[in-house]
């Protein structure tokens, strides 16, 4: 049993290490089958008596569990959406292009969760338990707009029935509880609107922390990069031809990425000229950013003037001038920035970060310029709402007084007015939501049309007109397009910022963005694989690069500011939305605490909102962040020092091994000269005179002590062998000659290549 157990363990060990054996595949498969059959037959026989069946059962269950875990891991990998598409893109275009699609997939997952929150806690309760369409004025199209409420032009501008639907803020009722479940819709609306930001912040920070654990900046930290790629890149378990093609393309792209990194490391540059060109490039880009901000502010002010005119007299361009100009700036400025950035000659990875930062500044400046101009319009609508509210209150008071005096009663019924005929305010929250939805839709249209015209049509022209054109269209103008990484990434981030800001005013905007991301994945994957070519300078995108997430985190913070300003400062509309009839939107929280919760919770909330407690808490958080940042830097420095020590230890080990191999090689050469003799010096012997050769006698075949000096001492291996020149491995046909005039006068004098008993071996006869 002991020998059987040992043999089974040996077979198991062979199965585990069979992949690393330098054998042919046929021999590996044969041994694998034999070992598996032996283990399967005798492994259950290791137990004794009753334990034999139990052991066999445990072995069987362990094997089944291993197989289940392997199948479950394969199932989890298969469930990752678009994994094969992204791997195919990465194999042909490099990790930099694939990083965009990975980021797009991550954004799709985030928006799915946000849509679940908004739809499950706001939209669905209102649809199932709220009042139906036409029951109250806020859910009814006004009489003056009903004739054109279903026109295509009106619906495309999100007016008519779209304006008074669940897509926008104004549709939701202000009753504190609705339905048989007594669902608190206004409280849920406020908490979901803020919870979207809280959940997004948690997910972004968690993703950044997970990425920072991977380390590295996208380059190769180790040595012998090309040797490792050459001898270890191929996977010999690939059996699918399509997978093999993708792997071949991936290895080729990986070599291109490493070549670019090596070229950038060896580049020499004129530092003074480079600084001047970079300052000039930044100056030009700042001028472009300032001009775009001024243009947007001017256009928004014009749109406010157009809003006071008759809409039938305005053209399509005048109605959609703001969206058109913002989309045009987002389309023109990124290529302009990329052209200016060629003056700087950064590494492609660093150039991508600068390009992302500049386009981010462009989009953010345009967005906040749009918001400032939009809030000027909001203030004007608030003044209009105040006048309409005062007139409505005055009219109701007149109605009540006239009815009371005429009928001489205090039981006054409400005015019998159809909801479509009620005079209502402009509902500025819905107007802001419409602007965000229009911006999102125009961004989708511009992105898709750019791909269709700028990439697909361009590729069709190059593909089919190249044979009959005056020059080579593929090598010259227009050629095939390259995938714009920076523009597409910033488009995603900018669009997500609009979703975060606009979701509070338009709950249906999150669902619209989910559809947009879903179609973008298929549409852009198709466009990349069929219309684009890899970049001329393929570079590695860092797998732990948090630059995208850092920009997204900044956009999240800047998107939170307008929403918090709206909730804490601006009064809600008096006749639309879940917060109508309240002075501030956050008053719904105080109402819930006073009416639905015990008194001590209200006291706790009052103490928690005391500025005397908030300021020390904020100061403590700042100190904690500072401490954690300092600790993180110390850990980074310690890791760098440890890496240096490991590198030094590896270099020392390599040098020691190389020296040992050189010494062993010299010793082997000496052993080859005398294969039957030992290199170790023998014991002390009496000096023997050299043999006297008679005339016509043959010379002895082997010298007694090769390399020995005339005084009879042996060769000092530690000192002499390491200093000797390498000796070619040639057959020995002559005994070594005398060592000098003191040894034997008949020998030839030592030549320039001789020393310490190692002369140049004679040529073969």
Please sum up the structure shown:
Helix content is 64%, strand content 1%. It is mostly helical and 765 residues long. Helix 5 runs parallel beside helix 15 (485-502), helix 10 (271-307) packs antiparallel against helix 12 (321-341) and helix 10 (271-307) packs parallel to helix 13 (348-407).
Structural commentary:
- Helices cover 64% and strands 1% of the residues.
- It is an all-alpha fold.
- A two-stranded parallel sheet has the order 1-2.
- It is globular and about 135 Å long.
- It starts with a helix and ends in a 45-residue tail after the last helix.
- Belongs to the TMC family.
- Pfam families: TMC.
- It is a multi-pass membrane protein.
Keywords:
765 residues; mainly alpha; two-stranded parallel ribbon; disordered C terminus; transmembrane; Transmembrane channel-like protein; membrane; coiled coil
Radius of gyration, in angstroms, nearest whole number: 41 Å
Strand order of the largest sheet: 1-2
- Structural class, judged by helices and strands? mainly alpha
Q: Provide the β-strand percentage band.
A: under 5%
Instruction: Specify the overall morphology.
Output: globular
Q: Can you lay out the helices and strands and say which pair or pack?
A:
Blueprint: H1 2-17, H2 25-42, H3 50-79, H4 83-93, H5 95-129, H6 152-156, H7 185-212, H8 225-232, H9 241-265, H10 271-307, H11 316-319, H12 321-341, H13 348-407, H14 428-465, E1 481-482, H15 485-502, H16 509-531, E2 532-533, H17 547-568, H18 587-596, H19 599-608, H20 611-673, H21 717-720
Parallel strand pairs: 1-2
GO molecular function: mechanosensitive monoatomic ion channel activity
Family: Belongs to the TMC family.
GO cellular component, one term: plasma membrane
């Amino acid at each position: 049993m002991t020998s059987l157990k040992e043999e089974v363990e040996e077979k198991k060990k062979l199965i585990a290490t069979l992949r690393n054996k330098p054998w042919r595949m046929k021999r590996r498969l044969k041994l694998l089958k034999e070992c598996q059959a032996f283990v399967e037959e005798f492994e259950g026989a290791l137990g004794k008596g009753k334990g034999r069946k139990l052991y066999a059962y445990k072995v069987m269950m362990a094997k089944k569990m291993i197989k289940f875990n392997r199948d479950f891991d394969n199932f989890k990998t298969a469930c990752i959406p678009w994994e094969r598409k992204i791997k195919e893109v990465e194999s042909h275009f490099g990790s930099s292009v694939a990083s965009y699609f990975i980021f797009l997939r991550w954004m799709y997952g985030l928006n799915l969760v946000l849509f679940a929150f908004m739809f499950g806690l706001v939209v669905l309760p209102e649809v199932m338990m709220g009042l139906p369409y036409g029951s109250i004025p806020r859910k009814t199209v006004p009489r003056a707009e009903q004739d054109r409420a279903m026109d295509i032009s009106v619906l495309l501008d999100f007016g008519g029935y779209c304006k008074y639907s669940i897509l926008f803020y104004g549709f939701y009722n202000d009753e504190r509880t609705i339905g048989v479940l007594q669902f608190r819709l206004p409280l849920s609306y406020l908490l979901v609107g803020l919870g979207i930001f809280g959940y997004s912040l948690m997910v972004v920070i968690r993703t950044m922390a997970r990425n920072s654990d991977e380390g590295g900046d996208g380059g190769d930290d180790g040595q012998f990069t090309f040797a490792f790629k050459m001898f270890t890149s191929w996977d010999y378990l690939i059996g699918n031809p399509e997978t093999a093609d993708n792997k071949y393309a991936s290895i080729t792209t990986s070599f291109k990425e490493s070549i670019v990194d090596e070229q950038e490391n060896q580049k020499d540059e004129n530092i003074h000229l480079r600084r001047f060109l970079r300052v000039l490039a930044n100056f030009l880009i700042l001028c472009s950013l300032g001009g775009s901000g001024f243009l947007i502010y001017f256009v928004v002010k014009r749109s406010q003037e157009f809003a006071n005119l008759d809409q039938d007299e305005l053209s399509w361009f005048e109605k959609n001038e703001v969206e058109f100009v913002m989309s045009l700036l987002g389309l023109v400025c990124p290529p302009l920035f990329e052209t200016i950035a060629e003056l700087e000659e950064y590494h492609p990875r660093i150039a991508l970060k600068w390009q992302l930062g500049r386009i981010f500044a462009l989009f953010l400046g345009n967005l906040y310029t749009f918001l400032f101009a939009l809030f000027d319009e909001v203030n004007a609508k608030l003044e209009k709402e105040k006048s309409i509210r005062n007139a409505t209150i005055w009219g109701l008071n007149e109605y009540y007084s006239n009815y009371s005096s005429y009928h001489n009663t205090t039981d006054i019924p409400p005015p019998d007015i159809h909801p479509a005929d009620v005079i209502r305010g402009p509902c500025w929250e819905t107007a802001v939501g419409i602007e965000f939805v229009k911006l999102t839709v125009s961004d989708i249209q511009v992105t898709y049309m750019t791909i269709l015209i700028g990439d697909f049509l361009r590729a069709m022209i190059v593909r089919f007109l190249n044979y009959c054109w005056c020059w080579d269209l593929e090598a010259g103008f227009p050629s095939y397009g390259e995938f714009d990484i920076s523009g597409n990434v910033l488009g995603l981030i900018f669009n997500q910022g609009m979703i975060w800001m606009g979701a509070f005013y338009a709950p249906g905007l999150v669902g619209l963005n989910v559809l947009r991301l879903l179609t973008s994945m298929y549409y852009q994957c198709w466009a990349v694989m069929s219309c684009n070519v890899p970049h001329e300078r393929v570079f590695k995108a860092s797998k732990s690069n948090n630059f995208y997430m850092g920009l997204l985190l900044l956009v999240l913070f800047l998107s939170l500011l307008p929403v918090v300003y709206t909730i804490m400062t601006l009064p809600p509309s008096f006749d639309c939305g879940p917060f109508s009839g309240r002075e501030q939107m956050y008053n719904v929280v105080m109402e819930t605490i006073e009416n639905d919760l015990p008194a001590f919770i209200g006291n706790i909330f009052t103490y928690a909102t005391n500025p005397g407690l908030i300021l020390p808490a904020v100061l403590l958080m700042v100190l904690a962040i500072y401490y954690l940042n300092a600790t993180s830097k110390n850990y980074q420095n310690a890791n760098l020092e440890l890496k240096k020590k490991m590198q030094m230890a590896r270099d020392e080990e390599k040098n020691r091994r190389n020296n040992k191999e050189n010494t062993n090689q010299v010793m082997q050469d000496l052993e080859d000269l005398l294969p039957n003799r030992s290199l170790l010096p023998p014991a002390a012997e009496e000096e023997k005179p050299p043999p006297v050769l008679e005339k016509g006698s043959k010379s002895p075949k082997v010298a007694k002590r090769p390399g020995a000096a005339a005084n009879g001492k042996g060769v000092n291996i530690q000192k002499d062998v390491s200093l000797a020149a390498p000796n070619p491995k040639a057959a020995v046909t002559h005994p070594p000659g005398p060592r000098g005039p003191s040894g034997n006068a008949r020998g030839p004098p030592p030549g320039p290549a001789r020393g310490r008993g190692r002369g140049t071996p004679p040529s073969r006869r």
